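User: For a benchmark we're assembling, each entry needs the component sequences followed by a predicted structure for the full assembly. Here are entry 17's components. Please fill in the structure.
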Amino acid sequence: MPPILEVDGVLKRFGGVTAVDRVSLSLEARHIYGLIGPNGSGKTTLFNCITGVEQRDEGEIRFKGRRIDGLKPHQIFHEGIGRTFQIIRVFPELTALENLLVVTTTDYAQARARAEELLRFVKLEGLAGEYAGNLSYGQQKLVEFIRVLMTDPELILLDEPAAGVNRTLLNDLLDAVRQLRDRGKTVLLVEHDMKVVMGLCETVFVLDHGEKLAEGPPGVIQTDERVIEAYFGR
Amino acid sequence: MKRGLLAAFCVLLLGLAVYPMAGTGYGIRFMLQLFMWIALAQSWNLISGLTGYVSFGHIAFFGMGAYTAGILIAKLGWPWLLASLAGGVGAMVLALVIGWPCLRLKGPYFAISMLGLNEVLRVAVSYFEGLTGGGSGLSLPALYASVAIYYSMGLVALAVTALTYVIVTSRFGLRLMTIREDEIAAEAMGINTFRYKLYAFLLSAVGPGIVGGLAARDQSYIEPISVFPLIMTITMIVMVLFGGKGTIWGPVLGAVLLFTLQEMIWARFIYVHQLLFGAIIVTVVLFMPRGILGVLQQKYNLPRTI
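Assistant: Structure for entry 17:
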């Protein structure tokens, strides 16, 4: 099977800073991938380049063999790539239910049924009519997570899904991610919590100073000297 | 409760429909202007209240409508109602031409560009003397049609409010609000924000355009400073903020309260009303940024439709 996502030599500069420096990644369908690296290593910028929030300066990005670099974020979403944000971006003055309804273009009854199903999936059905801004941090995170699932995207990018989420909620969330994989989705997640990365991901990419430092199964990455050096210094 | 409100609203409409038979000349003119302000405030609310893109030059569409209709009436002898509708079309065309580049600007840059548009139009109108009469203005043939204009203004106010109701209760309206809430997230969730902003902008221009044409007919004389005044844009903004931005009835409430208040004070003290407006802006921004209806909605957890 050809890779579902190919990032090929992508480079992004902000003024004199090269945030992402000719990074190449290749994701196979039906797997969970992790993207790790110290703060400022370019993880979120790479996410932004893939989803069109930032325009890459060099390189190509292909999704299912089609080039998506240069497309607008809303076009990339409709190609089948959904994402969450590191800093929560729910629509605070829309209800939890409305946060989900705005995403789809299917008919209203169908969208509503799907939204209610997803709210039940994360046990938030009782808060459907509450303004998203009034929900707790963890609940907002869940709303953002299921909002991505409204259109059933094939590739899901999660930016620090575990940050600030309590243990019980986190286990539900990780279960949900595994279920997605089992249903044929591909997941790429940025995460600082090594337990989460090691327990969930099948392949891990390591970024440092914008460059890809290493790639491999979590067990191998954990003992890679260059990775340890990047995190803890020599 | 809902049925009672609906019944009260129908009685109110009926009362307004028969009012010209009993009202004084002053009363009819007062109501006619009130309808105009409701239509203006409600239109501003469509773009700025829902999408959060603050238009500081919205009166430009009013002026565009006034001049389109004025020229059609004075130079081509069009009937005033048709000319006013053409004013609405003219305003939409202007909104398309201006919105195409300017709605790509974010936040304050859009606000400033709209402010600039209004000033540019005023100068342009003064310059093309052959068509517009330039700085000395454009006179329309005399006509006494206050009652007919009363009904026309009332229908426009009602239509724009009905349009707002339909939009706010639809997914289209919710998507407009996502732009206000978080444009980057909206875009990342597959919403073509530029297209939605443009639709809202076009819809927000048509009401002021028609109302501008009707006002031109009503006053029988227009000049650049009378149809492009910044103070009118500010007034409609204050009405919406006071009543509750992004709500259906907030702009109506704000227009009714402020216009009535303004008339009462204006009649006695010429300058105090400007002072009062300033004070209201400061009070609203500081103490109730959601406006009267916004505060009530939050406090009593009311649905969006109230």
